[in-house]
Specification:
single chain; 673 residues; mainly alpha; Annexin V, domain 1; cholesterol binding; calcium-dependent phospholipid binding; calcium ion binding
Length: 673
């Protein structure tokens, strides 16, 4: 069994079996495979409850007792995915990796994803063991075989990783960090073309601790994460490999959690990936992977395997998983620490928010007004011209066009557009023509009028807008509907939910930095109201008010510190705890605030994904977000979307909408990532 580093806790899900007797196990396995059929339950029970070291002893005892090769007998008796899984568990880890790589480069074509996964994630020691195992098993040189089956910069980086010579010194030179940041920046963003050799050298050789600091400083210096530069400067398998290396540097368990999720999401299961990861990580970091999986995807790894596989194959995978994190409604304590680290990096420096719609160069409102009038005059409507003009002008420029249109033609542009276009396209185009505050005010009004209330829209807008935006919305609402937004919310909502919305609608969130002492007090309030504090104090009504005050009025930098202190204090993630302990609209509002504080572009990326997944499309949500974020952070949302869902926002829109609505959305999206 793999030993954790000195002082580190063992994080595998498979342990040495107490009272282990290799001869007894060998006899039980022989009995399970003797005669007609085989006792698969007995086989999987023994093999999944022994460590790899113990399995090797069982193999040796089996050969001594029966003169037969246990792996060969298992291959003969078992079939399909179950056989691949059991046989994978029986091999020593390095030999298992060697077999995976041999299969990846054998025959026609290469399984680049397998090569990337293994070589980007293994430690120096594991890499040396892999090279030796490959030589022993196949009497071939692994480096030579990889060179023979790959090419270009992808090949060069694989060879660098294969050397297993990454620096392991935890002492980091600040000067070298700054130099590497400058070298990476000059090799990519500042260079015509890209100096791939610098990326290969730095990412392939520097220590993990060093590179994490490089990534932090790169974000501060350039305003963008290193991943964004890699996507912009590199391409193909080389780009995928470098992104995998960065992910593993940041968090190897998170990389594998993501790989497992993608292996099981959607139609069909990528069983080879699922088997390879469950086998290779079962004695290393499966508990960490489970924790991150539960945090990131809001479901347990156990439950996803259970729903996506069947038979003995499923039973074996679940044994390797080691437990269901949903079963008792309990959250892994360590997951909260990981959860914080997952988004804390984005708060290290201020990431520049970028929209996809910018002011048009050489803007001529007179020409645009005439072109729009011509597009709507006579029989039929030239939707392409309308879309092209309106989606490629900033909102301020659109207001100039409206004024010019009225001056030239004595007509209201909005009224003309309403009469000429309809449906989803009309909602999108008319939304773009409204000033942002008036558009938000209208969305809030529509959410509250008629039978029933659209609480999700109220939450989305009020939980994510800045103080300045909220104040502008209040003015617009009063101007357009002759009623205060607060009065409207009071009339249409009730209880704690109403209090939360009215608090947010005041636009009085603090705008300063963090206060550590206050953050600790605020974290204690959160722990008490969420009923996980060791010593709850105060009456519940007072605590609820204080908790609402914390989430609705503290500054974003301060709240990030509160969330971190909450983790230190309780070992829980505040977002997950709110989801577990609260319910209804209050829970949804608080979760939206927390998600917005953690990573606002990711909050909107999730909303966009949910608006397009499954049967049917939520065009209203899709339109609202594309309109409202197009000049603020839609470019950042695009990056979060492709990072989380492994496809671009452009692709998602293209696959889920059609016609002129599709054209307008893609124009706002601003490009294919």
């Amino acid at each position: 069994m793999a030993k954790p580093a000195q002082g580190a806790k063992y994080r595998g899900s498979i342990h040495d079996f107490p009272g282990f007797d290799p001869n007894q196990d060998a006899e039980a396995l022989y009995t399970a495979m003797k005669g007609f059929g085989s006792d698969k339950e007995a086989i999987l029970d023994i093999i999944t409850s022994r460590s790899n070291r113990q399995r090797q002893e069982v193999c040796q005892s089996y050969k001594s007792l029966y003169g037969k090769d246990l792996i060969a007998d298992l291959k003969y008796e078992l079939t399909g995915k179950f056989e691949r899984l059991i046989v994978g568990l029986m091999r020593p880890p390095a030999y298992c990796d060697a077999k995976e790589i041999k299969d990846a480069i054998s025959g026609i074509g290469t399984d680049e994803k397998c090569l990337i996964e293994i070589l980007a994630s293994r430690t120096n020691e594991q890499m040396h063991q892999l090279v030796a195992a490959y030589k022993d098993a196949y009497e071939r040189d692994l480096e030579a075989d990889i060179i023979g089956d790959t090419s270009g910069h992808f090949q060069k980086m694989l060879v660098v990783l294969l050397q297993g010579t990454r620096e392991e010194d935890d002492v980091v030179s600040e000067d070298l960090v700054q130099q590497d940041v400058q070298d990476l920046y000059e090799a990519g963003e500042l260079k015509w073309g890209t100096d791939e050799a610098q990326f290969i050298y730095i990412l392939g050789n520097r220590s993990k601790q060093h590179l994490r600091l490089v990534f932090d400083e790169y974000l501060k210096t350039t305003g963008k994460p290193i991943e964004a530069s890699i996507r912009g400067e590199l391409s193909g398998d080389f780009e995928k490999l470098m992104l995998a290396v960065v992910k593993c540097i940041r968090s190897t368990p998170e990389y594998f959690a993501e790989r497992l999720f993608k292996a099981m999401k959607g139609l069909g299961t990528r069983d080879n990936t699922l088997i390879r990861i469950m086998v290779s990580r079962s004695e290393l970091d499966m508990l960490d992977i489970r924790e991150i999986f539960r945090t990131k995807y809001e479901k347990s790894l156990y439950s996803m395997i259970k729903n996506d596989t069947s038979g003995e194959y499923k039973k074996t995978l679940l044994k390797l998983c080691g437990g269901d994190d949903d079963a008792a409604g309990q959250f892994f304590p360590e997951a909260a620490q990981v959860a914080y680290q997952m988004w804390e990096l984005s708060a290290v420096a201020r990431v520049e928010l970028k929209g996809t719609v910018r002011p048009a160069n050489d803007f001529n409102p007179d020409a645009d007004a005439k072109a729009l009038r011509k597009a709507m005059k006579g029989l039929g409507t030239d939707e392409d011209t309308i879309i092209d003009i309106i989606t490629h002008r900033s909102n301020a420029q659109r207001q100039q066009i409206r004024q010019t249109f009225k001056s030239h033609f004595g007509r209201d542009l909005m009224t003309d557009l309403k009469s000429e276009i309809s449906g989803d396209l009309a909602r999108l185009i008319l939304g773009l023509m409204m000033p942002p505050a008036h558009y938000d005010a209208k969305q809030l009004k529509k959410a509250m009028e008629g039978a029933g209330t659209d609480e999700k829209t109220l939450i989305e807008i009020l939980a994510t807008r800045t103080n300045a935006e909220i104040r502008a919305i209040n003015e617009a609402y009063k101007e357009d509907y002759h009623k205060s937004l607060e009065d409207a919310l009071s009339s249409d909502t009730s209880g704690h939910f109403r209090r939360i919305l009215i608090s947010l609608a005041t636009g009085n969130r603090e705008e300063g930095g963090e206060n550590l002492d206050q953050a600790r007090e605020d974290a204690q309030v959160a722990a008490e109201i969420l009923e996980i504090a060791d010593t709850p104090s105060g009456d519940k009504t007072s605590l609820e008010t204080r908790f609402m005050t914390v989430l609705c009025t503290r500054s974003y930098p301060h709240l990030r510190r509160v969330f971190q202190e909450f983790i230190k204090m309780t070992n829980y993630d505040v977002e997950h705890t709110i989801k577990k302990e609260m319910s209804g609209d209050v829970r949804d509002a608080f979760v939206a605030i927390v998600q917005s504080v953690k990573n606002k572009p990711l909050f909107f990326a999730d909303k966009l994904y949910k608006s397009m997944k499954g049967a049917g499309t939520d065009e209203k949500t899709l339109t609202r977000i594309m309109v409202s974020r197009s000049e603020i952070d839609l470019l950042n949302i695009r990056r979060e979307f492709i990072e989380k869902y492994d496809k671009s926002l452009h692709q998602a829109i293209e696959g889920d909408t059609s016609g002129d609505f599709l054209k307008a959305l893609l124009a706002l999206c601003g490009g294919e990532d």
